[in-house]
Amino acid sequence: MANFQQPASLNALQLFGQACAILRNTTRASNPAWYQSAIELNLQLHIRPDGPNTSAFYYDARKGQWSRGPEFTEEILHDSIRLDLVLTEILKYARSHGASSLGVVLHVADEFATTELKPELNNPASLPDLRFAAVLDPGSILEDSSILATQGSWRVIPYPAAGSEVIGTTITMSRQYANFLGLLRQCGENANFPIITHALSAPLVAIMGLPQILKPTPEKPFVAILQYPWFTALAFFNEHSDLRLIRTLQHRGVRKPTHFHSALATTNASLEFVDPDLFLLPLGLEVDTTMESNLSHTFANCRIEVLRHPPVQEIPDWCPEPVITAMPVVSEPAVTSHTFSILTDDQWALQDFLPTPKEVVDIYPTRSEMRLLRLLRLARVALVIITLGSLVYFAMGTIELVRRPEWAFNPSQADIIKGRLVKLISERQKAEHWNNLLEDRSKAWINMEALARLFPENGGMLVKNYTHIAKPDTAPGQSKVGFVKEWKITGFARDEALETLNTLNTREGIAAHFAEIARITGNAAFTPNIGNRSITVNVRTQENNGFKPIPLEESNAADESTYPFTFELSITQRFEATDPMSIIVPKNP
Amino acid sequence: MHLYRQSIIIFGIVLPLVLAAAVIGGGFLVKSNMLESFETKQKTYVTSEKGRLSGLEIETKVKRQRDNLNRWIEQLSQETASAAATNLRKICEHFSSKEIQQTAFERPPSSAGGFGAVAAQRSSQLRIAFRGTFRTVQRVFLELETRMPRLQLQELQISPNTNQSTLLNFQVTYTAWEN
C-alpha cells in the first residue's frame, strides 16, 4: 500500500498523480463500501464493551443472520499488537463469507456522560447547526468553555418534549476507542478491503429501541432506567412519550449508583412528574437485580416494570443495541412519539462519536471524485483510441497520397513535357499553316478538266475564249479569308446545245457539274456542298450575226458561222472565311 | 472536501483533451499541408499528363505529316522561278514541240498578287504562256502543279491560236508561296 500524503502538501500535478495512484492501487473506485456507513454494509461486526465484558457479533444483513464474533477483551481493545491477530481473523471471516466490506459498529456501553449546552443557544431552530458544531467545534456550543475538543467527542441530543427548559444536551464520549477504530480502518486500508467504523453510544441506541418493548400508561410520564454495569442512565419522558431529560449516575465501583432513589425523586419533582411509570432495563450481565424491589418500596404509587428485549439468535436480552442498530424500525411499535421518530429518522441516536479523522478523510478523493477519475480513465482510453484512430486515418490518407503517381511526379518532368509540347504544337502549327497554303484550292489542270467536261466534243458548242480568275476576299484583321473563283467562257452554240446551256444555267445543273469534277479529280475545291460555298451561274445566248445556215453534215465544227447562237457563260464560286479551304492570313509561326 | 477536483479536471480532462486536440490538430495540419501540396502536384501532374497525351496525339499527327512538311520546306527553300523553269523543262522533254511550245515565262514585278495579296506569308507571281494542244498543256499543268504544290492558280486564259487552228494559246498566272 502506497504511503499517501496530505493533499495540502502537494501541488496540482502531484495531487492528480496521488489520485491516480489511489485509483490504481485501491478499490475505492469500484467498491462503494469505502464511502458508505458501517451500518449500511451487508456484513457488520458489532462490538459492545460495557466494562466487565466485551461482546462481539457478526451480522449478515443479506441473510438477517447473527453469529458470535471474535473474542475481545479490554486488553485487545487497547493493545495494537494483540489486536492484529484478531484483525487477521476478522478479515479471514469476512472474506470467507464473500463480503466485499465490513462495517464495524462499536456500541460504547462503559461510559455515558452529558454536558450542557450554552444557555444562549437555547433555540430549537438552531439544532441542525448545533449538531454540526458539536462535531467540528464543540467548544463553541458547550457551557463549559474550558473543554478542549481533543479531550473527547460530543454529540447533541434534542429534548423534543414541549415545556422543556432546554432544547437538548450533549452526550460526551472519551476517545479511548479512537485508536482501536483507527487500527481497524488502517487494517482495511492495508488489505485494500473496506473496514468502515461507527462508534455509537449504547444508551442512546437503547433509548431509540424503547418503542419495541415499552408500553407506558396512557397520559402518564415515564422514566426509562438503563442499568449498565458501570453506570445507570435515566431517560425522562413526558405523558406524550417525548424526551425531557437524560441523566446519568456513575456506579463508581459498585453495582448501583449511590443516592439513586433521591436523585430519581428529585428529578421527578423538578420535572413535575407525578408517579411516573418506571421501566427498568437491565443492560449487562452483572447489573443490580434488586432494583425493582427496592424501587417498589420507595415509589409505591409508580408502575414499575422490568423490560427485556427478546433474544435474537445469538444476541442475549441484556445486549439489545446491535439488534436495534441493525434493525431500528419495527412495523408496530408499542409507543410512538416525535422523540422516537427523530431519534430513528434523523439518526440522532446513531451519531458516530469517533468518525474517521478529517486529516485521514482528506487524503483520499471523495466518492464523486473517484467516480470522475474512473470515468476519466475510460474516457482517456476512448480519447487515446480516437486520437490513434485519427492519426491512423491521417497516416493512411498520407500514405495513399504518397503512393499516388501525382506525389512522385517530378515537376522538372512537367517542364520537359511542356517544352516538348510547345515544340510539337509549333510543328503542328507549321504543318497546318503549310497544309492550308498548299491546299489544292486552285489548279490549272482541274479547271481545264472542268472546261473539257463542260463542253464535250460534238456537243454543238464551240468555245472561243476562256478566262478564269481566282482572287481573295478583302477582310482586314481576319485570321482567315475567303476567296472567289470566276470563270468567263464565250463561244458559239447550235440549237441542240441550248438545252445543255439552260441546264448549266440552273443552280442544280452547275452544282452537278462541279460535283462531277470533284468526284473525278478528287479536288475538294469543286465540291459544292462544303461549308457555305455558293455557286452562281449566268448564261447569255444571242443570235450569231455571222450565222450562215448550211446542212449540218456539211458544216465544220470549227466554223463559227455554222453556229446560230453565241453564248457567254459566267460562273462565280464563292468560298467564305469559314470554309475549310479559306486562306490563312498570319505568317508561318 | 473535493480537494482533488481541480487537479482532476486540469490533468484528467483539460490536459488530455488539449493534448489529443494538439495531436489530432497536428495530424490534420500535416495532412492538410500534404493535401495542399498534393493538389498542387496533382494540378501539375494533370496538366503535364494532359500535355503528354496531347503531345502524343499531336506527335502522331505531326509524324504523319513530317515527311510531307520536310519535303515542302525543302521545295519552298528553292527559288520559285528557277524551280519552275527546271521542272517545266523536264516535263516538256516528254512532249514534242508540235504539241506544246512555251511562249513566255516571266515574273511580274509585283510580288504579292492573287492569294498572296491577303496572306502574311511571303509569295511571288509567275506568269507562263504556252501554245499547245488542250490535253498536252493540261498534262503539263498537272505535272507541274503536282511537282510544285506551292503554285496556286491565279489566272488562266485560253484562246484559239490564229495561226494554227489545232493549237490553243494558254496564259497562266500563278501565286507561288515562298518560305
Globally, the shape of chain B reads rod-shaped
- DSSP strand content of chain B: 15-25%
- Strand order in space, largest sheet of chain B: 1-2-4-3
Which chains share the greatest interface?
A: A-B, 86 and 76 residues
Class per helix and strand makeup of chain B: alpha+beta
* Number of distinct beta strands of chain A: 19
Mean pLDDT of chain A: 89
Low-confidence stretches of chain A: none
Q: What's the CATH superfamily of the largest domain in chain B, by name?
A: Ribosomal protein S6/Translation elongation factor EF1B
Largest sheet of chain B, in brief, is:
4 strands, antiparallel
Q: Give the % helix of chain A.
A: 25-40%
The portion of residues assigned to helices of chain B is 55-70%
Strand and helix layout:
The complex is a heterodimer of chains A (589) and B (179).
Chain A lengths: L11 H14 L17 E7 L4 E7 L4 E4 L5 H5 L1 H17 L5 E7 L4 E4 L10 H10 L15 E7 L9 E7 L3 H13 L4 E7 H7 L13 E6 L3 E7 L5 E8 L9 H11 L6 E6 L8 H8 L5 E3 L14 H6 L11 H8 L12 H4 L5 H37 L1 H4 L2 H27 L6 H11 L6 E12 L7 E2 L1 E11 L1 H10 L2 H15 L12 E10 L21 E11 L7 E2 L5
Chain B lengths: L4 H72 L3 H13 L7 E7 L16 E10 L1 H14 L3 E10 L7 E10 L2
Helix pairs in contact in B: 2-3
Descriptive overview:
- The complex is a heterodimer of chains A (589) and B (179).
- Chain A is of the alpha+beta class and 589 residues long.
- Helix content of chain A is 35%, strand content 22%.
- Among the domains of chain A are: 121-171, no CATH class; 444-584, no CATH class.
- Chain A has helices at 12-25, 74-78, 80-96, 127-136, 178-190, 202-208, 260-270, 291-298, 321-326, 338-345, 358-361, 367-403, 405-408, 411-437, 444-454, 495-504, 507-521, and strands at 43-49, 54-60, 65-68, 102-108, 113-116, 152-158, 168-174, 195-201, 222-227, 231-237, 243-250, 277-282, 304-306, 461-472, 480-481, 483-493, 534-543, 565-575, 583-584.
- In chain A, the strands form 5 sheets. A 5-stranded mixed beta sheet of chain A has the order 3-2-1-4-8. A 5-stranded mixed beta sheet of chain A has the order 11-10-9-12-13, with helices on both faces. Chain A has a 4-stranded antiparallel beta sheet with strand order 14-16-18-17.
- The radius of gyration of chain A is 64 Å and the shape is rod-shaped.
- The mean pLDDT of chain A is 89.
- Chain B folds into 2 domains: 1-77; 80-177, Ribosomal protein S6/Translation elongation factor EF1B (Alpha-Beta Plaits), CATH 3.30.70.60.
- Chain B is 55% helix and 21% strand.
- Chain B has helices spanning 5-76, 80-92, 134-147; strands at residues 100-106, 123-132, 151-160, 168-177.
- In chain B, β3 (151-160) and β4 form a beta hairpin.
- The chains are: A alpha+beta (589), B alpha+beta (179).
- Chains A and B meet through α1, α12, α13, α14 and α15 of A and α1, α3 and β3 of B.
